[in-house]
Amino acid sequence: MKQLLLLAASSAVLAGFAHADAPEDKDLRQQSVIVTAPGPDRLEGELIGNATAIGREGIVETLGPTLGDTLDRQPGVSTTFFGQGASRPVLRGLGAERVQVLTNGIGVIDVSAASPDHQAAADGIDAEKIEILRGPAALAYGGQAIGGVVNVIDGLLPETLPEKPVSVDLLGAYNSVSEGTELSGRFQGVQGPIVLTLTASQRDFNDYDIPGMAESARQHAAEEAEEGEAHAEEEHADGTVENSFVNTNTYAGGLSWVGDNAYLGLAVRRQEAQYGLPGAAHEHGDEDGDEGEGEAHGEENPFIDLEQTRYDLRGGIRLDNGFLKEITGTVSQADYEHTEFEAPGEPGTVYKTDGTEARVEASHELGRVKGAFGLQYSDKTLDAFGDEAFITKTDSENIGAFLYETMEWDNGFGLEGGARIEQVTRDNIAGNADFDLFSASLGAHQHWDNGWFVGLQASHTERAPNESELYADGLHLATEQYEVGDINLDKEKGLNLEATARWESEQASFGINLFRTEFDGFVYLAPGTLDGEAVVEDLPVYLAPDVSGSMWQGENPRARAGLRSTFALALAALNQHDSVGLFPFADQLRVALPAKSGNVRKLRVAEALAAQTPGGQTDFVASLGKFARMRLRRGLLVVVSDFFDPGGVDAVRESLARQRHRVVMIQLVRKSDRDPDLRGDLLLTDCESGREHDVSVTPDVLAAYRRAYEAHQAALNDFALQRQAGLVQVDVDEPVLPQLSQLFETGALVV
Predict the structure, then answer these.
(1) Looking at the structure, do residues 312 and 460 belong to the same domain, yes or no?
(2) Which of 37, 190, 584, 723 has the fewest CB atoms within 10 Å of its CB?
(3) How far apart are CA 156 and CA 105, in angstroms?
(4) Does residue 227 sit within a domain?
(5) What is the pLDDT of residues 189-221, one digit of tens each?
(6) Helix or strand or coil: residue 190?
């Protein structure tokens, strides 16, 4: 249940803002005028496509925590949903990069279209008006509007002088579902031609209530089957969706000069938000190896912390030269950043985007012909940092020119149409991509004095693939999806046919829109496929190289081949889109890197392996037993070692038998392991313990040693067969990579 309180007051008590002479000319752009539509300003009922203008009162009545939630009740509008903090409008089944979200006719300049867990930097709580254009609007706003446009008009920079010298608008709301509060306020004052507008808003929502458990019975049963009693003993949220909180704060101000035939203004907006990602809780080991003897932290609740600062400069001039009627221009610049925290104090991936977008439009009239033409330019940089960054730095530049014309006859018949050309360039270290786009539309309509309006419109639109579709390569923490882009993608084309019929009287109204859209080269994520073949995405691969003291002895130590083998296996796993964790061991387990994926992970693994130093004595039971207790997500455990433990092969078997993961053993061997070149009386020193032994090496001693060695190897082989584990021998004195090919030939790394 949601309770709302709306207070609106107008006052002239501030003498400093006294307005001496109210202007005679009223603002021609009333609530029913769709300023977002291409071409001349027209009423909702004059458009062939389905358009809606929601005024302040309507916004308050349907206000939700996000823009998508606020518009969800509108016909033909749905929303993505990622808890209370993130949702984005979906128009006619199309969303993300096919629905352009604007603020005052300019893009929001954020990363909300890249993933459903990213909040749009426009929520509508302090909006003066929201306009929705369903269907292609690419002629005016580019290929990203192939599905439609949502334009949030904040009213910070008015084009005409307000009627009242001072106005105040206050909003308070309480949401019992999440025990949340919403507050917003607007102040507007007029002094001569100067207009000052200030707005502020705040949302504070707790986790929201649901009638049941947050985890489905099917999911609970599946996890219980995998984890056994450990999962059954876990507590699960009943009646509450954990980690669904939202906290946002927005502050904005605008200062405008408004003359009789011109206006110019500057606005600044600052938005800060924190919101949880329900369902994205995850487990990982202790990276430092100190907490709980290296056991898992348990479930942690990721959340996003975002901030954006935006500047808008907008102006216009009204002309009366017989052809040009008005010229308007807007330049917007924004800096956006959000950090995906794995837990408080544990920042993960950081997404940054900064960009500038400019648009100039001129309306004109010549006889029966009314229309508009203009230019649009944008320059944007998107970058991501962190182990789970799934996209590298990309610079995008868009240049477009558009024209839209209408013709109306006295009998109510009209024609309309237009075209747009656009050039899109994307620059990335993986390669550059250039697209030349063309969009066009043609329509006809007829309206009668009895209230009927019918229309038919055909349009062709083209869209360039976005940064993620071209260059993504990594796992996104929040959505738990591994995305792989394709730099060879071509532009996406859409052919739309739409018919409109409406009737309106003083007492009632009726309307219907029929549409069909066909796409050529539709770009979409294909889950679980790569090059047309099914694959398992994000398999955890845990690499455990032996770094005990004995591994570093000699001119060509086993550790060298072991670390090379580990790195080669890490690259192979990451290239097939698995996550990789690094757990070196000796007498203790070292948690070097938790299991994560992505291209950046390759560098992290290389750095961690290069930093390894000799450890103490070999102790499989203590070190790998500790790994077994960490309760990491089930995956593949690859142990790289000579498998010589002071406790014998029994210690090796005990440590590996308790693992819940599939096990692969990479044994580092030498020919001399079986037949050492030793003779006579020798003083042998244990390189790990330092203990010394006097040994007389005779043929009988060597024969006994070989029998013991062969028994050790036979026991390892038997264990591998019983455990259904892979056992691959790598000769440290030979090249490593050809020998590791056995893993891929047998499919040991593909499960």
Answers:
(1) yes
(2) 723
(3) 13
(4) no
(5) 999 999 999 999 999 999 888 777 666 666 666
(6) strand
